[in-house]
Amino acid sequence: MGLDVRSDDNCHLWAEQSGTGPPLVLCHGGPGLWDYLAPVARLLDDDARTIRWDQRGCGRSQRRGPYSVARFVADLDAVRDHLAGPVTALLGHSWGAHLALRYAIEHPERVSHLIYVSGTGIDPERGWHPHYERNLRQRLGHHLDRWEALGARARTPAQQRERAVLQWSADFADPGTALRHAERMATPWLGINEDCNQALNAEVKQELRDPDLIVQCRALDLPVLIIDGTEDIRPRWAVDSLHEALPNSQRVSLAGCGHLPWVENPHDFRQAVTTFLTEQRHQTLRQVHREPADRADPR
């Protein structure tokens, strides 16, 4: 049974938590989708207390706006405050990676670690997008005609689901299992909030053109792990500028994986995340234990 978190403007946000350990808030992608990160939570159950949530207007959360980056950052802060405590680690996937990054920029004192999974970087011209469109069509293969036909007209909920499953199948590297993975993502089907998707995508496009964003990334002095699947149809060089801008980041590329690397390579995904969290926590403890001695040294 889900938990009910109230935002500061009294919007009901669905959330769920599981596992034991330090808190880790998970931010799903979209925009306009719902939480599909239960498999990530299960992988990390022994290492973190994971907190999942449906973003405003999506899935099991209340279907109301406004749909803006600032509003979603404030909602994430409500989830953090209600369920995680004063400081939490964040893991964001795709659009959720951008949301987690924006939150860390605005509230660095409330974030211990940031895990940026399959995001699309901070390229102001979104130069990756034409490559994504081409790769999507190529990977759809013999499903391309049906996907295009469904996109050319108003759709029933069943047709909306069918088109989403076809499109999401391109996010997996192995064509033999791609449709099955996409079907699992779409079950249960909670409907895509197209208004939310369009509003946030338009705002992010404008936000990336702001030169302050790269300046803010350069000032973000907290540990960041960037995880990519090498077979993601969104070209991974799009993330290079973010990796270079962040002062304390490391990057892991998982071979043979598409956009959801924990599905196709769960062992290495879990190892990358847990190693990062453990190493950074040990480093923090070493710094805390050194500080009193450093202050007492008269030299």
Automatic annotation (TrEMBL):
Residue intervals of the AB hydrolase-1 domain: 22-266
Record InterPro entries: AB_hydrolase_1, AB_hydrolase_fold, AB_hydrolase_sf, Peptidase_S33
Keyword line: Hydrolase
Entry-linked SUPFAM superfamilies: alpha/beta-Hydrolases (SSF53474)
Taxonomic superkingdom: Bacteria
Family designation: Belongs to the peptidase S33 family.
PANTHER family named among the record's database cross-references: HYDROLASE, PUTATIVE (AFU_ORTHOLOGUE AFUA_2G14860)-RELATED, MONOACYLGLYCEROL LIPASE
Name of this protein: Proline iminopeptidase
Gene (name only): pip
